[in-house]
Fold this protein.
Amino acid sequence: MSSEAVKVDADMVVTFHYSLRDRDSADELIESSTGKEPVVYMHGHANIVPGLEEQMSGKQVGDKFTATVPPEQAYGLRDPNAVQRVPIKHLMNAGKLAAGQTVAVNTRQGPRHALVVKVGHFNVDLDLNHPLAGRTLMFDIEIVDVRAATPEELEHGHAHGPDGHGHDHDHAHDHGHDHDHDHAGHGHRHD
Ligand code: ZN
């Protein structure tokens, strides 16, 4: 077998570890896959933030690098109109509310997580911006594996795991952007 290095390119399935920091507060580790499962994604299918995907191109197994990604290529700029006054009765988990806490709220785009900014008697001010909106992100990346996608993965438009493990076609795919758990990938799960 030749050990010629395979480079990250369209339709390659890439496995990587990452640590995520904000460029402007680099001491604060936002999250990391260290000691956990690495992230697996299929390149060229917008399954990770665009600015990171772009900088993955051409990398190979063993490469370590830092990708600095401006908000426009990550989670967007902060939208001042995304801070909204909402009746407390519209909240999905209306327990005791306090500023700084995260709550689930129904929006026209489906359930979203929002940061409580201010609590009144009947209304609450919620910030619906993504927590990473407006932030320049620094991803410390280590490429663990690069392989060709399987026909099934190509059909689905996403990776199925490091070994292309069993995949039940009947289950619903979570194609949503699960922003609370996985900021490098998009929280695609098959369970
Ligand atoms: Zn799938």
